[in-house]
Amino acid sequence: MEVNRCGWCVGDALYEEYHDREWGVPVRDDPTMFEFLILETFQAGLSWITILRKREYFRKAFDDFDYRKIAAYDQSKLDELLQDPGIIRNRLKINATVANARAFIKVQEEYGSFCDYIWSYVDHKPVKNAISHYKDAPATTALSERISKDLKKKGFKFVGPTVVYAHMQATGMVNDHQTDCFRYHQV
Fold first, then answer.
1. From its phi and psi, is residue 112 left (phi > 0), alpha (psi between -120 and 50) or beta?
2. Which end is more exposed in the chain, N or C (fewer Cβ atoms within 10 Å of the end residue's Cβ)?
3. How much is the CA Rg of the chain, to the nearest whole Å?
């Protein structure tokens, strides 16, 4: 039986699996939220499929996305990451990952959890948009701009409005599945 999916993922098995199982599903736990934040920051300027294909390399290189361990990385670990061919070897993004881990912990200390903080922007309920074609989804919104500014004030790096909106889509804060996609009413 053929199912109707969002057009952006059709034709690539890895993309389709990600779309069907993860994209747009509300994330309520901090470790998963951090993983997506890191992957989205590395995605800046690249295609998401590039990051998906390297996801397990990122997981291994960044200690299973353990933000406590990442926050403690020293220069030798950063140098090691810059030599790792499995990940995107961008010095600014690698340094941003460490800064983001530290900022993430500070947000947890202030708000109880990062999820409580970030989900408060949408009143803890996913925003359900009505996108008829994936190309009609916005790249940024006034809300992603507001969140981006606040994250930057809190010390986060590589969290511009486009990265933030992609993060919101991936973690289910907004439902941008096409209205004819089988996942639209499921998430």
1. left
2. N
3. 16
How far apart are alpha carbons 50 and 87 in whole angstroms?
Answer: 10
CB neighbourhood size of 137 (10 A): 19
- Give me the mean pLDDT over the 89-111 stretch: 98
The reply to whether the predicted model has a pTM over 0.90 is yes
The pLDDT tens digits of the residues spanning 158-179 come to: 999 999 999 999 999 999 999 9
Amino acid at 32: T
Residue 22: active-site member: no
Residue of 23, 35, 40, 73 marked catalytic: 40
Cα angle: 56, vertex 144, 35; to 5 degrees: 15
Q: Could you say which of 16, 18, 121, 145 is catalytic?
A: 18
Q: Which two tokens stand for residue 108?
A: 């947890």
Per the annotation, the verdict on 18 as an active-site residue is: yes
pLDDT (tens digit per residue) in 16-75: 999 999 999 999 999 999 999 999 999 998 999 999 999 999 999 999 999 999 999 999
57 is catalytic: no
Looking at the DSSP bridge assignments, the partners of residue 175 are 128
